[in-house]
Amino acid sequence: YRSLRGYAARLSDRGSAPRTLARKLASSRAFFRSLVEHGDMTANPADLLPAPKLPQSLPRTIKPADVADLLDKIPATTPLELRDRALFELAYACGLRAEELVNLDLGSVEFDAEQVRVEGKGGKTRFVPIGEPAVVALTRYLERGRPGLAAAAGDPALFLSKSGRRLSTSDVRRRLRVWARHAASQGAVHPHALRHSFATHLLEGGADLRAIQELLGHSSISTTQVYTRVESARLRAAYLRSHPRA
Questions:
Q1: Catalytic: 97?
Q2: Could you give the CA distance from residue 84 to residue 78 in angstroms, rounded to a whole number?
Q3: What pLDDT is stored for residue 223 in this prediction?
Q4: What tens digit of pLDDT does each residue of 23-79 get?
Q5: Residues in CB range of 136: below 8 A, 6 or more apart
Q6: Is residue 158 a contact partner of residue 111, using CB atoms and an 8 Å limit?
Q7: Could you tell me which of 161, 146, 167 has the C-alpha nearest to residue 102?
Q8: pLDDT at 58
Q9: Is 121 part of the annotated catalytic residue set?
Q10: Is 60 a catalytic residue?
Q11: Is 192 marked active-site?
């Protein structure tokens, strides 16, 4: 145990980042756990080491005007453009994970009820309302875009690749990078940034935290509370900019 504490101290003295230190200590725990399982040791000394406190990073969000600019600059001419416009309108309108987007089937969208049925983590199903811009984009894609992508076999996936197969999450990330560059967005835009922006913009608009939790499909309210820190940081920045005695 003393040797491990010395090892952790040396890493810290050398300026190792907390995440680097946590990763190395996790490897040590796994090593000693293996020795215990094989009967070479009676206890895992690394379990006594406290985990380093990791800095809490706030999720990256995009301003509403920048999201609108990104989406509005996706043309709606070719089948792929129509697909991408519908894909990212839906991602932002409903706060969906990339995995949830690609797992949607044709029957997942309920146009009469203006909602989408989402199969989330742990096999949990939730229903999320769809805004009018996303409904319009989806309708155009299904009428003028998807028929040009569908293969003869007929994949039930809502969003298809140019070869007629279900999109992958890497396809979603790649296509969003393309349109972010096209819109000259600041920095790289990840699909999860649209999800974070969805939640933050709802909170800024006055939505209840419990409602946001249900819309995001979070099992615990503590996961959703990260967005209150985003809002708090925004309000503090506004205060520092505006108050004469800040």
A1: yes
A2: 10
A3: 72
A4: 888 888 888 888 888 888 888 888 877 776 655 555 678 889 999 999 999 998 999
A5: none
A6: no
A7: 167
A8: 55
A9: yes
A10: no
A11: yes
Cβ atoms of residues 82 and 145 within 8 Å: yes
- Residue 187: its pLDDT value, please? 61
Does the annotation count 196 as an active-site position? no
Alpha-carbon gap, residue 44 to 39, rounded angstroms: 11
Based on the residue annotation, tell me whether 190 is a catalytic residue of this protein: no
Could you tell me which of 119, 189, 122 has the C-alpha nearest to residue 158? 119
Structure tokens at 92: 């932002």
| Token digits of residue 236 | 């503090």
Angle between helices 209-216 and 226-242 (to 10 degrees): 130
Catalytic: which of 33, 73, 177, 218? 218
Catalytic site residue from 24, 165, 177, 192: 192
In which element (H, E) is residue 115 found?
strand 115-119
Annotated active-site residue in 23, 121, 162, 181 = 121
Q: In DSSP terms, which residues pair with 125 in a beta bridge? A: 119
Chain Cα centroid distance, residue 229: 17
pTM of the model: 0.70
Which residues of the chain register pLDDT less than 50? none
Catalytic member of 146, 195, 196, 201: 195
Chain centre to alpha carbon of residue 128: 16
Note whether 62 and 197 are within 8 A (CB): yes
Catalytic residue among 83, 85, 92, 97: 97
